[in-house]
Fold each of these.
Amino acid sequence: MSLPHAILTALLEKPSSGLELTRRFDRSIGYFWSATHQQIYRELGKLEQAGYIRALPAPVPARGQKKEYEVLPAGRAELAAWVDTAEDPKPMRSGLLLRMRAAAVVGGTGLRAELERHLALHRRQLDEYLEIETRDFPPERRATEPGRLRHLVLRGGIDLERFWVEWLTHAIGELAAE
Amino acid sequence: MSLPHAILTALLEKPSSGLELTRRFDRSIGYFWSATHQQIYRELGKLEQAGYIRALPAPVPARGQKKEYEVLPAGRAELAAWVDTAEDPKPMRSGLLLRMRAAAVVGGTGLRAELERHLALHRRQLDEYLEIETRDFPPERRATEPGRLRHLVLRGGIDLERFWVEWLTHAIGELAAE
DNA sequence: CAGCGCATGTAAGTGGTTACATGATTCA
DNA sequence: TGAATCATGTAACCACTTACATGCGCTG
């Protein structure tokens, strides 16, 4: 039940239309809470009905016309309340680990290549995060509010990708040593 | 679309009833592909219909009676084929990181406590994995088939929990330094 | 024989994915 | 004016979650 809160956060950072939100999800919030444009439009409708956001008055309201949304006080209050709720981490789900476990039972020749492929993908993601870090968080901005929290979030993404790169490298080495 | 393959893997490791599978998911395969008993029963029905598994002949087939399943050759073939397919890693989804990003916008007083809580949970999970490692994978078994792949999978779980513990510890330290 | 735990299931609801539909704008 | 692109939306489907229902077997 977190998509609406992801959208509220994004809209507070900057009022946007549905498609703009979609794009921003693709390269920012979506790194830890992804969403497609269909989800976003549906959710925008619900949030508007709930009185959490409103569409800025548009000259010609019609299908195919851009519609900008902004967060209302009730929406900000809802988000602030949600921030202070507790929620257990969801158990992880990794198709790759599952594949590996299955390979331990039935064998399989393509596993090595699949590990290499994932390694390349995670390396690319790591590089992307590191670029964002040097661009948006120069050392002097890292310790000051409100950048500190956002930098910690990015750090989480970076360290997670590093974990994958290291584990995959290790796994490939083990498989090669057969 | 991986639950059926998780079940096939588990059944190949050891033929089981639905409830036994549920329990084994809770403390083994479920660490990287969790499932509830409702999902498992439903999926067992589908797998049986597809001819991938069969129920071992029971003395009294009736509701409330235990039903053991075993994998048929077609099921093993399906699993072997699946192991050699490619699949991109799904973008991660973390409610905690989202909360943190929201806190950067609307503030929030409970974030610190929530981080501590998650830290405790991840520490406990890490300990559990480490116990499994010392119990099931003594050093001499780690390099030999077929334990090597399974040990790599466990290693993945361990390193992932270590990542969380380290990141959370760092984040809590940063927040304390206000 | 009542109550509890084991075991298998059904039903309804939610959230996310995939495929498609429609209107507006721009530009060759 | 027709094709490409921007922008908003609908519909069907699928996986997962939550709540509940039912029957068997053992034990007090």
Amino acid sequence: MVLSKRLTYWYLHNKRDLPWRKTHEPYHIWLSEIMLQQTRIEQGLPYYYKFIEAYPSVFDLAKAPADDVLKLWQGLGYYSRARNLHETAKFVAFELNGVFPDSFKGLLKLKGVGDYTASAIASICYDEPVAVVDGNVYRVLARIFGIDTPINSTAGIKEFKKLAQELLDKKDPATFNQAIMEFGALHCKPQNPKCGTCPFNDKCLALKNDRIKELPVKLKKTKVKKRFFNYLVFNIDDEKTILEQRTGKGIWNGLYQFPLIESNALIDEADLMKMEDFQASISNLKIELSLFNEDPVIHKLSHQHLFTRFWVVNSNEDIENSIQLQRVQDYPVPVLIENFLNDYLPDAYK
DNA sequence: AAAGCGGGGAG
DNA sequence: CTCCCAGCTTT
């Protein structure tokens, strides 16, 4: 039997009941696909529900303030996705009269939509025969066909896309694409794949050659960089503080945080007082410093470990641009800040 | 071609 | 601890 037939048979009997599988509306499919980029379904699911409730149509999303969108995205990570999501919503709503492009080529032009996402939307919404290649597809194909070309090499990306496109059921690309991904997620898993009950265990080259654990091949892991964050949590008359919005190309672009002093190592109060950035932050204020956490919080990102200390800067003099402490939770903040706030803010403020 | 971008779950 | 997740963009 051809691969696509076995795959779709497996899919029909094993697929999960997911909300975006009840619709072919481009807005909902697009929203789910952006959210699920590099994100597990279990993690993205609650966000999907939140977004379709807050923004039932692309027009609602387009009209929303950027900070509201980021706030709703808070905790999901890769925040450029949220910024691109909003940009694309505005483009579709205001430039395309709310109608999404109806082809792979057209979809590919949208911000935040790459080869995978354009293929997913085009196949699911418009039955266009374009194969998706996500992490699941790489794994399933690498194993069944015993391919050891690195999946994140230029050659690998080309090779796997070509193979997936050949295998694709051109008559029902929507089902095939979702089937191969679901199969990778539930059956041909990274660890402990269920080879014993696999519909392909008669032909899988990786199983035959005992290479399940080697495939797929992925090029080198990046090394983690250590950074040292000192947040200045201003406490003005026990009612106000300062937040700043992150800008630029680094982590958490667009999110808010307390004034940050970054150092090259863990520092004490005396070191902090000597730093120019710190002196500039407090200007001529009369302050009293207290360290909130002696043991730094180690916030782990994919490529960085952030050793973080929160310094409470008490003062009775007001500062320009200060905001009410209660208002802090209205701003989109990194999980690192959110966790701190849950420890720091009295219950009355939450 | 390589680097950068989050947070969380599984083993 | 390591690996990886319905990847994309920038350099």
